[in-house]
Specification:
Layout (H helix, E strand, L loop, with lengths): L1 H31 L23 H14 L4 H27 L2
Helix pairs in contact: 1-2, 1-3, 2-3
Amino acid sequence: MYDSVIDRLNDTLKELYHQAIDADKKLTALRTKGQARFSAVLSEDSQFTTHADQFMPYVAELADELEMLSSCSEEEYQALLARMVHKIQLLASTLSQFMRLD
């Protein structure tokens, strides 16, 4: 059962990875125009330990957590999975909203 969950999370992270590449390119373009002057994509209370002005570091944090998830104990699994799903939803939503901006 855990393998199928981890496989699905891995697929989701691959999608987020490609979205983050596009979003980071857009951020770079905005910054060359003097826009997008913020210090972090997500707020400090987002449950991410990463605080970056690009999207890719957040995807990297999720990839690290996925690796931990595949080797953690059964007791840790549920808590880590719940936190990871929340973070994925937040990042996916933020990426989607950002990419819709003109």
